[in-house]
């Protein structure tokens, strides 16, 4: 070793190096945080897979899934083609407005022409407008399929609650019901209820009606 | 050099034994911090680099080749973190000498002590004036006393490059001190 190398070794002993801080606690805390984040991510992925499985389990579904929209109580799947569909059909058993086990919400507080119990929920019929109300619970999911390219589907906000607007023809599967054809529909959450409004109106008008329910 | 005890510890850590990894952190935290500090020149950067180094090493344990020495593998990760911080800062914080004790306090000739201190000051200034890659190789070899192999691993260069770069850096230093 040359003199210069010896001097460099000697210099090392005279360097101002702060004492090493204890690293173990911080490192272990960071590793624990990372494990928690990975568990949360795995949980989110599992939920996503379960939602996809629910969408795929709908009878008669053969079309390939391309994209789906979800909120608690409702799933909309974009597919490349719609299954064979029936139009119209009975809405269920006519009942009085006060017969439902929960208070039915009314657009602008207006009473409907008729109320029906059917498809696992309650139909409120107005001139040119149908409102379906469903209490959240296991198996109480509205599943819809919309065809890519012919139907607009997007997330919307209804007074701070999440909603989905479906502009165009699509298939609707109500709990326990057969697949039916449907037109413009807005689905949104309102507390424990999932509401579905079907009318020949545009997105903004549908949102205005949705915001008026009380 | 790796002792048989350390090899077993590393093997346990690689198999997911958290207690073994904790022992490795305790054993190497001081060297990891010192390595990062010598490269980055800043205590806060060095602490972060050492922490990140251990976290990344833990993540990479599955890829560690059992039987290989653990120390240079860990130092390579830590040194890389320290260099990244130095790069992000845009400039290197210079190392400094410890404050000298009262002249004659150690029993040495005060004049000799003053000359020694002046010489060390010049030497450190010359080291800090070198290019980053020359300075890093000298820091690893002489300040951290790493072997050529360990220096090569820590800096991510070939052992032959460590040799030639050390030779070049010492020559430049010699020139500077003339």
Describe the structure.
- The complex is a heterodimer of chains A (214) and B (178).
- With 214 residues, chain A is of the alpha+beta class.
- Chain A is 25% helix and 35% strand.
- Chain A has an eight-stranded antiparallel beta sheet with strand order 3-4-5-6-13-12-9-8, covered by helices on one side. In chain A, strands 1-2-7-10-11 form a five-stranded mixed beta sheet, with helices on one face.
- In chain A, strand 1 and strand 2 form a beta hairpin.
- The longest helix of chain A is centred in the first third of the chain and has 33 residues, at 24-56.
- Chain A is elongated, with a radius of gyration of 28 Å.
- The mean pLDDT of chain A is 82.
- Chain B is built from eight helices and no strands.
- Chain B is elongated and about 55 Å long.
- Chain B has helices at residues 4-14, 18-40, 43-60, 70-89, 110-128, 132-143, 148-155, 159-177.
- In chain B, helix 7 (148-155) crosses helix 8.
- Helix content of chain B is 73%, strand content 0%.
- The chains are: A alpha+beta (214), B mainly alpha (178).
